[in-house]
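Tokens help. Our protein:
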Amino acid sequence: MAPLPESNTARWFLDYSDGINEHSMMFRTVSPASMATLKSEVDTFLDTMAPQMFVITIIGMRVALVGSNVSNSTPWTGNATYGTGVMPATLAPREVRFVGRSADGRRNSISVYGTKFVTPDTFRIPSSADTVIEAALLRLANAAALGIGATISGQAPIWKAYANVNFNSYWESEARP
């Protein structure tokens, strides 16, 4: 499959801190998505995840328009924080990753840091086994129908019925002295 330019769609970056590291969550958008709808959907997604999250603090939001590799700040209209409690440093490298693929075979993923999920032996939480994962996947599917969370080709992904849980090697290395 031929690669597409990174700027093939508009990209929205939600910058946040899990209390230890700063992260960015990226959502690609296509028509009919509006800025207000995107912000509302991302806020609702994080509200859905909040029962299984340590406190994350929103730093801000940026947007890079179609054809541009430059992102500019845009006001965040959602909550300033999500979740409860302080994340232990030993969990800082752990991510929960939602994955999907569009009809043309392009992948998409959303990673969330700062979660309270217990890492299962399979490193995967099926939606049938956890109501928060199930609800988060429903939020992502709803957003995709609105043009939010598209793949690089601009198509809506079909989200897998699970979330992967893993320790990200980049953040493991960052934690080492």
In short: Strands lie at 10-17, 22-29, 56-64, 72-74, 81-82, 94-101, 107-113, 124-126, 158-167. Residues 74 and 144 are 21 Å apart (CA to CA). The chain has three helices and nine strands.
